[in-house]
Amino acid sequence: MESFTKTVYGEMPDGTPVHQFVLTNKNGMQLKAIEYGGIITHLTAPDKQNNFIDVVLGHDSLEEYLQSDFYFGALIGRYGNRIANAAFELDGTTYELAANNGPNNLHGGPDGFDSAVWNGERAESEDGVALILSYTSKDGEMGFPGTLSVEVIYNLTNDNALEILYRATSDKKTVVNLTQHSYFNLAGKGDILDHYLEINAEQFLAVDEFSIPVDDCFTEVEGTPFNFTMPKRVGADIETEDEQLSLASGYDHTFVIPQDESGLAFVASVFEADSGRIMKVFSSEPGVQFYSGNFIEEGTSGKEGHTYGKHSGLCLETQHYPDSPNRPDFPSVVLEAGNEYRSVTVYEFGAIEGI
Ligand code: GAL
Questions:
Q1: Which of 60, 97, 111, 122 shows the greatest Cβ crowding within 10 Å of its Cβ?
Q2: Shortest CA distance to 269 belongs to which of 202, 192, 204, 347?
Q3: Mean pLDDT over all residues of the chain?
């Protein structure tokens, strides 16, 4: 039976209530999300025996999320990923942002959308159960121009997919790059080094020591540890001596996804052999940041007694390329006043015997 519930999850330090929503589809698959950061706190997925377990990393309470540095499950904006030297120019005006990652701006700054309190409500869904989260980012917030009205829909379908639709409009020309920062672990425990990963990318973007794409960044994956064109264990090449892997302490790179006529291209699949769980990702975005959880601190206390560390989960953040506002050679992230930003990503879950 489909259901949707709303309860109080906690209170912000200023007393603002934060609600939690529990979405359940016809098969019993569940998504739990909170208004703080639009965080997906739980997402269950079936194994070969149709056992549903939670496959995302997270914490047990709002207090822990408020202190956490890892963006577990959060919505990311106004600009996901990095902007070099925390500045960009638009129509002759330079916009200064906060440098919160070395000299660069990361994930929209220290008070990005991941730490905003969104407003959640049940949304209409043609197939499944849906939550709409809304947030208005003020003109000048975190240094970005234009009042940006953002809506994100989490739709849990009855064929066990999480569809995410992002929409935004601005009253001034601005830049936008929204994404979702869930860390997946399809075994629900241990690390993700034995998960098989396929990424539909012939190229990735090479970066400098601050994870900013270098000038001549488009790099063929063939013959490198970045070749995931066929399913490969995440850990297979992660220890290889490779400049790009050592710069990021593992995988933390944008892969170039070919555009699909349907508007929704195959991005990646992740398979965990013991459980048979498989997750397929589709998106309208031209890139995906594959992050192998390199910076999760050892001993981080997670949900229900779990302790996390390096590689406890992996992220597949669909998005435009890092530093696009400063890179005329990249697909544009500029949103004109009055136009609509739209982005769709689907995480589809199932179970198979093998690959
Ligand atoms: C990723 C980013 C990583 C790291 C992580 C959060 O999106 O690419 O470098 O900052 O977020 O810990």
A1: 97
A2: 347
A3: 97
Q: Which amino acid is at 221?
A: V
DSSP states along 20-63: EEEEE-TT--EEEEESBTT-EEEEEEE-TT--EEE-B---SSHH
Give residue-wise pLDDT tens across range 161-189.
999 999 999 999 999 999 999 999 999 99
Q: How far is the centre of ligand 1, averaged over its atoms, from the C-alpha of 162 (Å)?
A: 22
Predicted TM-score (pTM) above 0.85:
yes
Task: Please count the helices (runs of H) and the strands (runs of E) in the chain.
Answer: 2, 29
Tell me the sheet residues that pair with 90: 93
* Cα angle 180-133-116, degrees, rounded to a multiple of 5: 70
Question: Is 57 in contact with 313 (CB distance < 8 Å)?
Answer: yes
Q: What is the CATH number that goes with domain 3-351?
A: 2.70.98.10
Reported confidence tier of residue 211, pLDDT bands at 50, 70, 90: very high
Residue 327 CA, chain-centre distance (Å), reads 22
| CA–CA separation, 183 and 186 (whole Å) | 10
pLDDT of residue 351: 97
pLDDT of residue 354: 73
Quickly tell me which residue has 């905003």 as its tokens.
116
How large is the average pLDDT for residues 68-96? 98
Q: Is there an atom of ligand 1 within 6 Å of 308 CB?
A: no
Q: Which two tokens stand for residue 177?
A: 């790059």
Pocket probe mutation, ligand 1, options 115, 252, 319, max atoms within 8 Å of Cβ: 252
Considering only CA atoms, which of 161, 197, 144, 177 is closest in space to residue 287?
177
Using most ligand atoms within 8 A of CB, pick from 82, 291, 308 the residue to mutate for ligand 1: 291
Residue 44 contacts by C-beta under 8 Å, 6 or more apart in sequence?
28, 29, 30, 31, 52, 53, 54, 55
Active-site position among 19, 59, 181, 306 = 181
Instruction: Give pLDDT tens digits for 4-25.
Output: 999 999 999 999 999 999 999 9
For the chain, give the number of residues: 355
